[in-house]
Specification:
- By secondary structure, this protein is an alpha/beta fold.
- It contains 9 helices and 9 strands.
- It has helices spanning 20-28, 71-86, 104-116, 132-143, 162-169, 190-205, 240-247, 252-269, 289-294; strands spanning 6-13, 46-52, 55-61, 89-95, 120-125, 151-153, 215-223, 229-237, 273-281.
- Strands 2-3-1-4-5-6 form a 6-stranded mixed beta sheet, with helices on both faces. The protein has a 3-stranded mixed beta sheet with strand order 7-8-9.
- A hairpin with a 5-residue loop joins strand 7 and strand 8.
Length: 303
């Protein structure tokens, strides 16, 4: 055993839209977690592996903490709590630029930290979009809780402060062998990753509540002799009217979603991607346990 090696799990915990997924991608230097301006974009735990010297940092990008109503939402929030509970270190992230930072969701996170007695550091994001005096006041208010060992102020979008974050976290990890090969980025199956990239486009291109009624499944993945890959996916919605909206006039909307997703997949895979999308109606899929399991929304609670 190499006694100089360290390895630990770090949970990214925070309210929806705090910037956790953007930070995750910056730390990994790769597009792993999908991002949209809409809250609750992240539905399940996403694991990403980064190296800092001789330390392997295993980050868990968790769903945002909010007040759930539907079964799927309850699963998402439970995934957040369980992911944080299993981690060696909790990184609590707040969007400092919001008018009200100490929401009921934020307070529930602080209450959880008090109950669990977890080692935690505070990450204030979007600090470039807030007056310095207000930022320092917020930091002082949160450090007064005595729940955080350190406070970092960053911009996940520009990566400002991200290298400092990695340097801060690495020495806090326990000594031990690495859990993953040095060149492994994630434990996410490629099919699920591809589904997520298409779902990201659904979130970006469709308005109101419709994205929350949609799910994406990768039905087929065919490696071709020329080095390209052919991917077939199903976009599930809950009503026939929603199907018509996703389809768009003359199929224009689904074509645009497919084109953007295909381009993103091609950039990340560094090869040509052929993507075919079909739309299917599955009523109340968000309440169907078996369907949620198939989507990777269940069974991810264990480390």
């Amino acid at each position: 055993m190499d006694k100089t090696k360290r390895c630990g799990f770090i949970a990214l915990l925070g309210p929806p839209n705090a910037g956790k997924s953007t930070l995750m991608n910056q730390m990994l230097g790769s597009k792993l977690s999908i991002i949209s301006p809409k809250p609750q974009t992240t539905r399940s735990r996403v694991l990403g592996v980064a190296m800092e010297g001789n330390t392997q940092l295993v980050f868990l990008d968790l769903p945002g903490v909010f007040m759930p109503k539907r079964k799927m939402e309850r699963v998402m929030v439970e995934a957040a709590w369980e992911g944080a509970r299993s981690a060696d270190l909790v990184m609590v992230m707040f969007d400092a630029s919001k008018k009200v930072v100490m929401t009921s969701e934020a307070r529930s996170i602080l209450k959880w930290l008090t109950t669990e007695k977890k080692q935690a550091i505070l990450v204030l994001n979007k600090v470039d979009a807030i007056p310095k005096e207000r930022l320092l006041g917020l930091a002082q208010e949160l450090t007064a809780t005595n729940l955080f060992t350190d406070v970092l102020m960053i911009s996940a979008k520009t990566a400002d402060g991200v290298p400092d974050l990695l340097k801060l976290v690495a020495p806090k990890m326990p000594a031990g062998e690495w859990q993953y090969p040095e060149d492994q980025l994630t434990d996410m199956p490629e099919r699920l990753w591809a589904s997520e990239l298409t779902r990201e486009q659904v979130f970006l291109q469709l308005k109101e509540e419709l994205p929350y009624a949609a799910a994406v499944e990768t039905e087929s993945w065919e490696e071709r002799r020329d080095g390209s890959v052919a991917i077939g996916q199903i976009v599930y919605v809950q009503k026939e009217t929603q199907r018509a909206i996703v389809l768009g006039k003359g199929g224009a909307r689904i074509k645009e979603i497919g084109q953007k997703a295909r381009e993103e997949m091609g950039r990340e895979l560094e090869r040509k991607v052929h993507l075919t999308l079909h739309i299917k109606v599955k009523e109340n899929w968000s309440e169907d346990i078996n369907f949620l399991k198939a989507q990777g929304l269940l069974g991810h609670l264990e480390r």
